[in-house]
Amino acid sequence: MSYKESTTPPDGYDVGRENMLDFKIDEQFEMLEQSDAKNFILTTVDEVFNWAKLSSIWPVTFGLACCAIEMIAASATRYDIDRFGAGAFRATPRQADLMIVSGTVTAKMARRLKLIYDQMPEPKWVMAMGSCAIGGGPYFKYGYHVVKGVDYMVPVDIYVPGCPPRPEVLLEGLMRLQDKIRGRQGKMVTPKWVQDYAKKIPYQK
């Protein structure tokens, strides 16, 4: 007796179950191709170039004093400055486009700093990190050997205050530099604790 397979489903069998394995790949690919033909982006060449610049800021390996320790910490794994595309610290100024002046600039170092800045290709930016680089810091009054602000030597784009500023502050300054490259003006929001502290300071005319 030969076995013959039945083509009629048994009672209660749901015929729609066979269609569950039909994923309709061809129809989905066709819909995907049609949708891709409609997708387009409107922008300008300047915005594309600025996006490329702000996404690949290469700082020059240039540390002067205690602020450089915080800059090194910002490039480590805890803060990971590579998230912003700025972790490729270059050993030569000819491959860098950002100078982070991290520390005290003495009169002897000022000439070297200006030389490194001149060797950097355009476009280039400068970030003054810490009180000493911004205005001389604690050496402002009696430090005859300290430059009272690196902006006397090179044009500064971003000022990062602190003595020394923490890595989070350096990353904040980096994001403000990205806003400047993008062409947007950042909105300064004063924290509430600053306003409360300012009210407690005695003021005399």
Short note summarizing the structure:
By secondary structure, the protein is mainly α. It has helices spanning 25-38, 45-54, 67-74, 107-119, 131-135, 167-182, 192-200, and strands at residues 98-102, 125-129, 158-160.
How would you characterize this protein structure?
The chain has 205 residues and is mainly alpha-helical. It contains seven helices and three strands; from the N terminus they run αααβαβαβαα. It has helices at 25-38, 45-54, 67-74, 107-119, 131-135, 167-182, 192-200; strands spanning 98-102, 125-129, 158-160. It has a three-stranded parallel β-sheet with strand order 1-2-3. It is elongated, with a radius of gyration of 30 Å. It starts with 24 loop residues before the first helix and ends in a 5-residue tail after the last helix.
